[in-house]
Design goal:
This protein is an alpha/beta fold and about 525 residues long. The protein is about 35% helix and about 20% strand. The structure holds glutamine.
Length: about 525
Amino acid sequence: METKYIFVTGGVVSSLGKGIISSSLACLLKARGYRVTIQKFDPYINIDPGTLNPYEHGECYVTVDGHEADLDLGHYERFTDIQTTKANNVTTGRVYQSVIDKERRGDYLGKTVQIVPHITDEIKRNVKKLGNTGNFDFIITEIGGTVGDIESLPYLESVRQLRWELGSNSLCIHLTYVPYIAAAKELKTKPTQHSVKQLQEAGIQPDILVLRTEKHISADMRRKIALFCNVSPEAVIQSVDVDSIYKVPVKMHEQHLDEIVLSKTGLTPDGEPHMKPWLEFLDKMDRAEETVTIGLVGKYVELHDAYKSIDEALFQAATYADHKVKIVYIHSEKVDERNVDEKLSDLDGVIIAPGFGQRGIEGKFVALKWCREHDVPTFGICLGMQCMVIEFARNVLGLQGANSTEMDSQTPYNVIDLMEEQKSISNMGGTMRLGAFDCKLRSGSRAAEAYGTTDISERHRHRFEFNEDFREQFETAGMQCVGENPASHLVEVVEIPDKRWYIGTQYHPEYSSTVLSPNPIFRSFIDAAIKYHESKK
Ligand code: GLN
């Protein structure tokens, strides 16, 4: 079949969850046997979100091919089990960079280079890139930002042109917000009408409207919106708040979103999507009664999206273990010797978060010392693993002042140090050790037991590494280096086998955890936390 292009735009306000709607549609189409991928176009000028502070856009996600991407790509993967790549996330910065490179090479043969057609052509080329591989039946393209933003205009113009070129092989889903005015006790459709008008001004007629709302929108009101917005009534779909984002595909299917997309793109919807494993997951989620409590020690805890993939991986693992998870966010800057006991004693397990730089680091060491001495299941991820190593060096090996050279370039014991090939790099964007690398686990280790194999591959995002010179000292004292890169022999996993569950991974297992295939090391951690919880009863 010819590739179908679905564009998802948003209006009224930002943060409506275009990523969740795109992911839910992809989930349904995939469950109908179609080959689907989702891509995101971000209107900001950064080349990628890698250099962005998490306070700006939340977590930076990493694809298998080592691209630092928008966190929506995490949703795409969690909902669909599709592996995204660099091609699935394009920013205005990348578009302009490519056009400017072409201009410098002389590719435009003396022409004046302009937003239309040069920038829009470059956007269109990127939109069709994955479609042209022949690997997909559906390409869902989420356009970041909100209709009416200056910076979104070139994208909307590209969508307008593509819709014209592709005809019935494309359609536009527009997501808006229907606010409830408590004082008037009324839902209001005017912002939606205005938003659709704005889209029409850009030359785009939406085919489907998805209305985000806190309250049920009556059929009458939906008919009214359909009438004012030139959309067929059945294609006005409501997305009422639900208690879990993973219920959205089901809610969309109940209103036939997948069937409408199929018929509007000239396909015949036959049968039902195969959602059995998904529904089983939801069922487990709804039936879970017991709660496992996990503390997450990090410095971006005021903003929960900063640890989005970790939160989701914990939730998935807990659901499969028939538990709810309560995540207690603990600000690492506020943990000290005096309050650590009070902050950590009610927890069943502790995660020491990834991160960069000195701020909040000492609190992580205090938390780790407490966890190690109290034998609480503890999981260090990336910087968290490096902190485990440093804390062990200081307090068990007696190496006073041990540190990572990231935090203290003069440390007498550089147990975590810069990789040789990183030393000459001065550019900050895209220069870390990024993407999936193989890792060999020591058989018999707890990590190998968790994965059920000794050969794994997980994603990385860091510059610093365990310093090989200290390996023997650590192993003799009880911290084992149980995972290493088979080619470079870099240490990827440490664990203290004497403890209940004390493991640090240099990689980020959270990036590969999905609803239908939760990451094994998270499952093992949660199982240990549940066991510990029960032992305390
Ligand atoms: N700052 C550390 C490094 O660059 C860890 C990075 C991380 O936690 N993602 O090695």
